[in-house]
Design a protein that fits this description.
The complex is a heterodimer. By secondary structure, chain A is α/β, with parallel strands linked by helices. Chain A is built from five helices and nine strands. Chain A has a five-stranded mixed sheet, with helices on one face. Chain A has a two-stranded antiparallel ribbon with strand order 6-7. In chain A, helix 2 packs across helix 3. In chain B, a hairpin with a 2-residue loop joins strand 5 and strand 6. Classes of the chains: A alpha/beta, B alpha/beta. Chains A and B meet through helix 1, strand 1, strand 2 and helix 3 of A and helix 1, strand 1, strand 3, strand 7 and helix 4 of B.
Chain lengths: 194, 157
């Protein structure tokens, strides 16, 4: 029997098939990587406990009204200045009487004994507040914490907090979080002037 | 003039298209790897607010989405222009969230459940009232890890 050469498959339509698949994937998929501000909600407590007493000097009160105006510590404040004011409050570097008290925390890894401020940020908004404003305020408060943490991390390891996070240095992150714990408490919103 | 002379007998060589499939396949693989499947069609119009202190949501399978915004043009006749909640492929009310969260939790693997995150995709012009109601519903459903979906802000405040 004479050996016949196997007929070659026509590759001309290969491009069309690939194009078809490509277009299918272009239509059926999305590119966006979701990102956003992470928050943890407080769990619901069954039996209503009495409110824990926190001294007034330890609380940084931020109120947002339905016209998206800010009242911070009984003063009207521009949102641009919120971060600096929050930073000043959280750290209380000058040990002022009006800013939060400090408590000695012993044996923080890497840092030893440290004075940690008893700060709490209380955020309250109106039901008519715009979501955009709320997010901007949340962002500024987060930024205040992050910048302070960065300063601390830079001084100790000359790396930013985010860099430590990337390197999965869990112990170092924990130590920093102990010195600057993020405490943002959100009160139930009021309903004044929708 | 020499420039516009008639073509001589030699035919212009045809461009080889043999590598075209390879190029297209390369594109195809790029898109297959870098994109994710579109899970539901958006029935609400959402422009997320901008922020700087953002974190990426890593594991998509652990995230469930709650979309809030004004209905798109096609649905405005039926539902009006007030912000609405969309869960999966349909409009819902705040009361449906608890049900939604528990069914999402059921669908997850046992050891993934504590890490479940709820991403709130809310239009930036929405009023906080509805967002607060959602947050309360999430607390009742004990889905405490949330993420306010935002895009990256480049310019200063």
């Amino acid at each position: 029997m004479a050996r016949r050469e196997a007929p070659e498959i026509n590759g001309g339509s290969m491009a069309d098939i690939a194009f078809m698949l490509l277009i299918f994937f272009l239509v059926a998929t999305t590119m966006n990587i979701d990102s956003g501000i992470m928050r943890k909600l407080p769990p619901i407590v069954e039996d209503q406990q009495d409110d824990i007493d926190i001294k007034e000097r330890n609380v940084f009160v931020v109120l947002i009204n339905s016209n998206d105006q800010l009242l911070v510590e009984n003063e009207i404040l521009n949102i641009k200045n919120l971060k600096d004011k929050a930073k000043e409050f959280i750290a209380n570097k000058a040990n002022l009487e009006t800013l939060p008290e400090k408590k000695l925390v012993k044996d923080i890894p890497f840092f030893g004994d440290q004075m940690v401020s008893k700060q709490v940020i209380s955020l309250q908004n109106d039901r008519g507040t715009k979501y955009d404003t709320y997010i901007t305020v949340q962002n500024e408060l987060t930024k205040a914490y992050n910048e302070l943490r960065d300063e601390l991390a830079m001084g100790k390891w000359s790396k930013t907090y985010a860099q430590l996070e990337k390197a999965h240095e869990k112990d170092k992150l924990k130590a920093i979080r102990k010195i600057y714990p993020m405490r943002i408490s959100e009160a139930e919103p009021k309903n004044i002037g929708e | 003039m020499g420039k516009f002379q008639k073509k001589s007998g030699k035919a212009s060589p045809e461009m080889s298209t043999a590598s075209l499939p390879d190029i297209v396949f390369m594109l195809l693989f790029f898109f297959m790897v870098s994109t994710t499947m579109r899970d539901s069609t958006m029935m609400v119009k959402i422009t997320v607010p901008q922020a700087t202190e953002i974190k990426k949501l890593e594991k998509k399978s652990l995230v469930s989405y709650i979309n809030v915004g004004p209905p798109t043009k096609a649905f405005q006749k039926l539902y009006g222009t007030e912000p609405k909640i969309q869960l999966n492929d349909q409009f819902a009310s705040v009361d449906d969230i608890q049900q939604f969260i528990s069914s999402e939790r059921e669908a997850m693997k046992e050891n993934d459940r504590p890490q479940m995150t709820t991403s709130l995709k809310v239009d930036k012009d929405t009023k906080m009232g509805i967002v607060t109601d959602i947050k309360q519903a999430l607390r009742r459903a004990s889905a405490l890890k949330i993420n306010y979906s935002t895009s990256k802000r480049v310019e200063d405040l």
